[in-house]
Structure formats: structure tokens, C-alpha cells
Specification:
The structure is a homotrimer. The first copy, chain A, is mainly beta. Helix content of chain A is about 10%, strand content about 55%. Chain A has a single domain, classed as Porin (Beta Barrel).
Amino acid sequence: FAMAQSSVTLYGVADAFVGSKKTNTLTAVGANLVASNLRQTMVESNGLSGSRWGLRANEDLGGGLKAFATLESGLNIDTGAGQQGALLFGRQAFVGLGGNFGGLSLGRHYSAFDAVRGAVLSAQNSAYTFDATNGYGGDFTETQLKDLQAYNQAATPANQVARAPAAAAALARSVARMGAWTGYVPRIDNSIRYETPNISGFQGVLVYGFGENKTATTGATKNGSASLTYVNGPIAVALVHQDDELAKGFHLKNTAVGGNYDFGLAKAFLAYNQAKFTGLAKQNEWAVGIRAPLGATTLVAQYAHAKGDDLGKNQSLGLQVEYTLSKRTTAYAALNQTRRFDSLAKNDVFGLGMRHTF
Amino acid sequence: FAMAQSSVTLYGVADAFVGSKKTNTLTAVGANLVASNLRQTMVESNGLSGSRWGLRANEDLGGGLKAFATLESGLNIDTGAGQQGALLFGRQAFVGLGGNFGGLSLGRHYSAFDAVRGAVLSAQNSAYTFDATNGYGGDFTETQLKDLQAYNQAATPANQVARAPAAAAALARSVARMGAWTGYVPRIDNSIRYETPNISGFQGVLVYGFGENKTATTGATKNGSASLTYVNGPIAVALVHQDDELAKGFHLKNTAVGGNYDFGLAKAFLAYNQAKFTGLAKQNEWAVGIRAPLGATTLVAQYAHAKGDDLGKNQSLGLQVEYTLSKRTTAYAALNQTRRFDSLAKNDVFGLGMRHTF
Amino acid sequence: FAMAQSSVTLYGVADAFVGSKKTNTLTAVGANLVASNLRQTMVESNGLSGSRWGLRANEDLGGGLKAFATLESGLNIDTGAGQQGALLFGRQAFVGLGGNFGGLSLGRHYSAFDAVRGAVLSAQNSAYTFDATNGYGGDFTETQLKDLQAYNQAATPANQVARAPAAAAALARSVARMGAWTGYVPRIDNSIRYETPNISGFQGVLVYGFGENKTATTGATKNGSASLTYVNGPIAVALVHQDDELAKGFHLKNTAVGGNYDFGLAKAFLAYNQAKFTGLAKQNEWAVGIRAPLGATTLVAQYAHAKGDDLGKNQSLGLQVEYTLSKRTTAYAALNQTRRFDSLAKNDVFGLGMRHTF
């Protein structure tokens, strides 16, 4: 390595587990939506954290100013395939300046909502598969939501039979994922991110992304997300909002509040979120969790619940035992059970795995 | 890092800006080609330089001989997507030997033309978006050029109406790009690159690529590029030629001459290029530019002009203010205005951004 | 580099050659399968070894336990494109633990068969293009094999005419590759790998992969591979088996035995393999090779032969001269000649190149 002129850190996470997974396929049978279940043994990636590799650059420019850049790529270690649609650096990619004013960067950033959910609201910090609050692609299109409404509000059985296939198709896209919260856009392309300096534990973050999809007849869509967090000693609380314009004029708005408190014996988490598809439907979501360290072992439990106007009720329970082999290496056993759409679909996964960070 | 046995350098560039961009869509309206304009705010990548990450390996083999290899990947930091068609190492990939004889390598290389354009002929050295000489995909197919000719030379208005859609389609592919020069193939696959030793400031480079697309009935195409440069103190001049066989028997030949001179107060650039689509059309292109350092600030201006037989007139103006935060970090404000095809399409972009190299 | 907290090694191979290659296209002409040949000059990648870059992480956990992870990506240095279907880390991706019990990992692993073929059975260790034992995609589907059988066993010429197109299509997929052995799956997704400790030179490896392709009506397929090797001083021998369930109930089973012995003046290789498509066809394969070092030069020769029930006879000859420029850099001249399907198709390639590891 030629290091004198270089100041980049190469880092990553390798996380895999072997386990069993039950997934569902939704179909319309007459007036009913029916889930057929499939259980199989799998080697899977990303039990505790998303596997990744990345480059982090930093430069001290003097006078309190610094330049920074991150390029981070997600991967499935069970197949070697890229995540996030196989984007080259699909997790994060940005370049910016930091100083007394805070930090300002341009690129593809985590939304403020997603960052707060992982770091403050969720007991399974940055977990994917086993996180009760992360999953359930609520990213319905306007058409899909209207199909669901038409089915749910159908006046006659004949009406329901006619509308069942469209409703099944609408639900199908999110049915295989774990977690109970309605989805927001977790990573915002073409975005500006500003974070305030940390003032006595308070910090604000704003991420605003340009859709860059203007046409001759429609304006560009936007994604905006803002958070305010307070972290001090044992307490961490946050208020966060995200507005995703999924199509011009069709918004999904999430507003969450919550936090965690370290009682010493255990850290408790509590969070509430309201998700609104403007003019169509809204959903109330809450989550409660705990992390209890017992020597090298940490017990983690989390339950999340979502109840929506046209989406029915969704519940998810995550349980983990993490065993710390070193600061960088953790073995784990974990399970997640999720029931969606008033228990129409029941998914679960359990596994035994390890995470190594480098 | 296990460094004892390793000798690879990890490097990169992260460049992004926020700004406004006007792009055009070309359509045929009766006998006329009409451009509809679209302006929108964007976070974009690669204002001054193409964002990238790469690996550079070097080994001293003794006796003046050395082995080298480079793998370089281009990316859009605004979305995390790969550039160059999302190739794994789309910017450069080669392995070779260097010594008293010069350097010889195999792989995917910059053409000699492209290297000279960036390093000697252009005031916006290695710039992408704001470079007045880099863009304008002149990589028309034979059919597209004939469609343009047929339209331009149509004897009657009825004839022109019939031919307008094909002509619009021919121009459409290059209309959204900045810059005024006709395109050559900037990176040559399956190529051999030889560079002579530097002899009193003189150096020659030859890059020759095999199309590897032979069929039972047609031979393989080829891409060849050769340059001669002279760099000594304040002066740098170059003569360069490239022959791209875009399809068997259909060549685009570029021949450029130019250079720059450092007057101390400013560095001035002047270049001329002739682009010929064999047997069909030719285009005369020239560029003039200046780089004037004022302390940490450098003012850059460049104007490029192209006038072609069947392609009309294209002009591009690039202006930049670069502010050096450190040797590796530059903030910039820049704009580019381009008029193509006798001002039929008017594109522009301006932005405020930063480039960090690591 | 921030190294204190990091323990990852960045490594790679850059291998390219310039040469000439003859490939074939198979078509049915009446009752006959006819190969049309195409020779062309090329710059190619991966003469001696697959070009790659990778990350290798290791951590000592104390008490003889260690954590390890590898992410390895294959590439064609002649075009910058990814190999293995452009997977992000298509060569290898796994994370695991090692200790007195051996090593246990999860991810995408080389099959035990492939590892042994490269390390023990083949004189062209880890070679791709010029390896007489690696290539010949024997990964026929059940339908393709039946099409071949029907053609080979056709009772009347009219019957053969009718079946020739399907037979040509069945052979076509493997006709452009070098090497004579029938194909197994070299890299197993979603797999568990266990290796025993090395006991007096003996070591066993087991790789088992879950197809994860269960449907409502069919179970998931599996890939399993196991090897036993004995390496001691000048001798290395191995017994290895692989069972690839290419589709539910349709297996390709490979069982190989062989080894090498270092006579001092030269190292000799001998290997035998039987490939069986369950219930349909089998093939006997053997290979003999030699590596003879003469100072910095090493002469390598290998011949492989495969004779199958319905696949005819395939032969491949590889010859190499390797010149060691340093421990990490090798120049080479090499050729491979392959005759497939009773000499219906004759492929060859020769080239002059270099391999640099970093």
C-alpha cells in the first residue's frame, strides 16, 4: 500500500446465517385472498446487519473544516450478488464538507427517518431480517391502494370476486418481507443532506432529494426527511418526519416519535409512527423493544404492530440472542414471526449465524 | 491491512454538485425538427471529474523493469450507480510491463486521443459535465448519418416531411450531452497500448483494439489511436489521430493538433480537430481555453466550436471557478451552455459542487 | 489508511494475453451436425488465472478461534466487465469461524470438487483458458441430453434429419469453451462449508448448498460436494465427489480420483473422473499432466480425454511456458487445442501474456 498520500478506510460487514424460512404467495380464490405457505431451509445473508463493503475518505482541511466521502455497497454473501438492485454503491454514496456549521453533503443518503429508526427507535439496531420494524414494503402505488380499497369496501360478494385478483396483486409485493411498519424510501437519490452541530445533545438532520423526473407535462417528484434527536447519557429520543412523493401528487408521509432509555440492566425502546397515503389511507404503527446484556450474551426482543385503514393489521415479533466473540465478531440465534393483513399471511424465519465487521 | 506482501493503492474521486440543467427532446413537426426544453434542479455527479474508485498495483522487477496494473471503476455519486454501462471496471482495466523500452499493456485503455484531449488540449482537464470539448456523441451510425443527409438535402418540402422523423431520431441520441466536439471511442476494449519512453519531452502513445466481432461473412472491426506529445517547461503540444471502425467499413476518423502554454499569469489552450465519417461527412472543430490562477482560486474558461457538413454548427461554452480547499479537495461553481445543430437544441447546466480525491 | 482498527487485505490478479482463437458454431445440415469455424486475433483475459479483486478479513478471537471472511470478484481485464454473470462477488463470498475443529463457513463457496481439481488434479493449477481439464460445459439439461440421445440413436436418416436441430442446439452451449471434462457447478450458492483440521496430511472438505427454489409442487434442489486429500512431502492425492441436482430429480454426479507427485525434475499429474447424468448417460474422463521447472522457466503440458455414452469423445491439450519475472509476476506463452463430440468441433487458442498478482 502506498499510504503516505492516501487517507481512505476500507471497511465492511459479512453476515450470514443458516436457518428456515416460511414465505407466502397470495392469490385470489373467489372472493377470498388466500396465502399458500412455503417453508424451506436456507443459507441467508444479513441476519443482524446488511453485508457490505465500503470506502470512507476523510481529510482535515484546517480551521475546523473537513472533507468527507463514503461509497458503500450492499451484498448478499450467500450468493455474491449485489443488493439494492445491484447498484455499484447502493447503500450510501456521498461527498461533503463538515465544520462548526455541521455537515453538508451531496449524493445518495439514508433518509433521516431510516437513520433514526435504526439508531434510536429500534432494539435491533440496523438489523434487517429479524427486525420487527423494518420490512413490510408499504410502498404501494396509488393504483394498488385504490384496488385494495375497492376490494375492502365492496358492497356485494360478486363485486368482491371481481376485485380480489387486483387486491391480491397489490398485497403480493410486500408479503414476503419481515417487519410490520409501512415502508418509506430508506435511501434518497440526488439528495442534499445537512446535519446541524450537536448542541448539548440535540441534533437535527435534513435530507432532501430531487426526483429529476420532470416531463413536459408533470413536475419532478421529491423526497424529504427531517429528524430531531436528543441523546444524553442513558436517554435518546427522536422526532422524525418523511414525505415521499411516490408519484406526482401522491405522497406517503411518515411521522414517528420515540426513543430508548438505558436502565443499566436493560435498554428499553418505544416508538410510534403514523403513515399516511395522502387522501387514501393511513396506518398507526408502534414498536416496543428491549436489549438486555448478560455478560457476553445480549438478549433482544422487539414487537411491532401496524393497523391501517385499508391494509388491515400487521404484527411482527423479533427475538435474538447475540453472543459477542469480539468487538468485531458476533454469533447469533434469532427468529422473526410476522402476521400481515389481519393474519392472512404468516411469515417466519429463524436462524443461526454470525456477523464479522472489518 | 496485511501490507508486507501487498503493494496496491486504493484511490478514488468523489465529485458532486447541486444545480440546474436544461435538456432537450427532439421531435419532427412536419418538415421541421423541434426541440422541447426541460429545466430542472438536480444533484448531479462528476462536475469537474468522473467519480471513481480504483486499484493501482506496481512492482519493481529489477533491472529497470516494472509490472503494473490498474482497475478503475466509474460511478455516479448522486445515485450510487455505476458508469460506463455499469461495467465492473469501466474506466480503465489493464496489466503491463514498463522499462527502458517504454510501457506495454493489455486491456481496456483510454484511447490516445482521449488522453491527449484531456491532458493537453482542454482547459477543463478531465472535466465531464462542464467541458466544452467533451460530449456531443458524434457516434452516429452509418444509417443515422444517411438519414440526416437525406433530410438536409431533401429537394422538396414533402420529401423533408417524410424524412424528418428519421433525422430527429438520428440527432436525438446526442442531444442531451454537453460539449461541442464529435465523438470518438474514449475507451478501447481488447486493446494493446504502447507508450514510448519520454525522450527530451517527446512521447508517443499507440492504442490498438480488436473488435473481436468477426462473423462468417464479415471481418472484425478495429479501433486505433496514436499520439505524439511534446511537453517541456511552459509548453505542451500534441498531434493525435484516431480511427474508429464503428461498423465494418464505416470509419470515424479524428485528427487533432493543439497544445497549451503557461504564460505564468494564465495558461492558454488552443486545439483543432477534424472528424470524418468516411465517404459521408466531415466536421471541423476547434477549441480555445484559459486557466488563470488567482491565489487559491482558478478561473477557467473554454469555448469549443464544431461545424459539420451534415451536422450543422455546434458551440459550447464552459466557465468554472475552482477554489482549492486542499491539494485533494476543490470547491467549484461552473456552467456550460451548448447550442447544437445550428442552435436547434440549447442545453445548459450550472452548478455548485465539490470534488474530493483520495 | 486508518489501520489500527482494520484487518482486511485487499488483493487481486490481473491476467491478460494477446493471441488468436478459433471458435465454432454448430448447425444442423440435413442429418449432419456441422461446425463452422471462426479464427480471430484477440486481447483476452484470464490466461493462467481468473483476473479478480478481493477482500480478505481475519481476526484472532483467542483460544485458537478465529473469524474469517472473503469477498472475491471476477473480471475480464480486456473489457472491464465482471465475470460470473457480473455478480458483485461472483468468485467467492463467505464468512466463518476456524479453530481446532477445522473451519465452518456460510456463503458462496468453491465446490470441493473444483478446489481439488485446481489444486491437486490439474497441472495448470487454477488456469482457465489453457487448462485441458476445465471447460466443456457439461451442464446439459435433461431435455438437451434426451435430444442428443434421440439424435444419436435415431433409427432412420429421416429420423435423424428431424432431430438434428435439437441436437445441435444441445451441443451449442458448450462448444465454444476449452477443456475436455464434463462440467459440475464450480461455485455453490447458499452453502455451508466444513473443512476438517489437517491430520498428518489428511484433510476433508464438505460443501453443501440449498437450492432455495422450492415451489408448491416441487422440493428444493441441492448441490453437495465432498473431498478427501492427502498431502505429504512430494505426494498429493485426492478422492472427490460432487452431486449437482440440476433440476429436481435430475442429477449430475462426478467422482474423481487422482494426484500429483514431485519427482524433483518435474511434477507429474494423473486424474480420473466419472460423470453420470442419472439414468441418462455417463462419461469417463482422465487427465495427465506435467510441470517441469527449468530455472525461471516452467514447462507445463496437460492432456485430458472424455468419452461419453451420448456425448462422443472430447480431447484437450494444453501447453504452457511460464516465465517467472518475480514471485508475483509471470509472463507466459500458451496454447490449447480441443476437439469435441468426436472431433465435430475443433477449438484452439494460443497467446502471449502476463499475470500480475497483488
